[in-house]
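#struct-queue
[09:14] JT: dropping the first one here, sequence first, then the structure tokens:
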Amino acid sequence: MTSAASAGSPVDGLLATASIVLSLLVAGWALVATLRHRAPDRAQFAGLAVLELALLVLGLMALLALGGGERPGEPGAFFGYLATLVCLPPLAWVLARMEPTRWGSAIVCAVCLVTPVVVVRLQQTWEVLGG
């Protein structure tokens, strides 16, 4: 029964996987820039923008499922993770713009390494009820 609940989760699937992979790719790019003593570049900011778009679509899918009558297992934690998730890329962008040195790239890297963890936690808080 857990697998049936997982299959129906609006925050699980191809979009969540793509968000995780994209986040890790941007983190890798930012790590290389950090190690090369480079400030954040347009590719990092573009990656953050695409990541934010994917996370907003993921959040919209969750909200549509809520409107359709589905409920997360832990609503409080779920909404906390959802709010955090959609705020992470803009936060990284702002902080990296404020720090136009290698540390700006380190900020992008750190935030992009946290993002997959938050996506997985979002999935786990949705599926608790189904388990």
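[09:21] JT: and here's the second one, same format:
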Amino acid sequence: MLSCRQATRLMSEAQDRKLGLAEKMSLELHLAMCKGCTNYRAQVSFLRDACRRYLADVRDGRE
């Protein structure tokens, strides 16, 4: 099983590359059992989406 450090590393890497099947399965298993990492993933996702929306607004002149 992955440690929290390994899980957060994989979540970060997933932003830049497609994870392999074994990586995805290991990560999902860890997330099923770890509330802290599940919260981390939700926070990272929220921040990523907020940044994308902000950049889109800036490009469209709606800052």
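[09:30] RK: nice, looked through the second one.
[09:31] RK: Residues 4-59 form one domain.
[09:31] JT: good to know. The mean pLDDT is 94.
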